[in-house]
Amino acid sequence: MSDVTQATHVPAPATPADLDKTADTPGTGNGEGGPVGKPRSLWSDAWHDLRRNPLFVISAGLILLLLVMAVWPTLFTGASPRRGDLANHYLQAPQLTHFFSPEWLGYDHQGRSIYARVVHGARASVTVGIAVTLLVTVFGGLLGMIAGYFGGWIDSVLSRILDVFAGLPFLLGAMVVLNVFDVRTVWIVSLALAFLGWTQIARVTRGSVITTKQSDYVQAAKALGAGTGRILLRHVLPNAIAPVIVVATIALGGYIAAEASLSFLGIGISPPTVSWGMDVSDGADQLRNAPHALLAPAIMVSVTVLAFIMLGDAVRNALDPKLR
Asked: Which of 1.10.540.10, 1.10.3720.10, 1.10.150.130, 2.60.40.10 is the CATH number of 48-74+121-323?
């Protein structure tokens, strides 16, 4: 037996600095990087960035407040938005010291509490915005995905249909459609706006699907004999939906503004439904005598639209790697 003993290498113990460095490395430790050898996905990276974005926090907080206001308006006021008292409250000025009371924002030309109407008006505006966004995302996204994936004559036919609808003026077309109805509910207005507003989502989805279907994993799924439905649902849609979500989020604010514009012109939601657009129209007639009747609903429309635009910008920055 040889007297020479083969030396073995004993690794040095890890220092606290080495442990901290490993924990901060994405996908290599138990820190924020996640489990060992498992890098974060696009969505987890996006959520990681969104939580640290003040723009997202502020806009999400405002939208959450609007949603709660739309679902449970009685949490904010017990006053009726339709009951007026002309004898005592005709164009009464705001009582700014009485926070969240019926007289806080004053009264309109029919003696109705403006604060109560602002709170209850959130339901119609938010409902229209969300309903139209869901409708155009499903319908426009489906047509865009079919056109982008199959191409050929299917893409040509659907693209020509899209061009026809894109050539129609949005608000003018909605006015023509809504003018047919004597009573215009929230759902009729939503359907009219969705009927004319799906083209943008369809274009974005089509372009995103055309880019995604050329990826290696889609070609590999085709080579392995995967069906068209499985490829679209499991491979194309999850990887092509990011820009669609961004556009839909920003467009939601635009649909709320469109509903307010139609109601301002008297072709939107019909009474007795409370709408910010109708209140802006009524307040515009009293601008010289009582500007507060116009300012409160107008500010609510502006803040709501701005909140969704801010949210869309934050989501876009988080989902687009080029903007990080």
From this structure: 1.10.3720.10
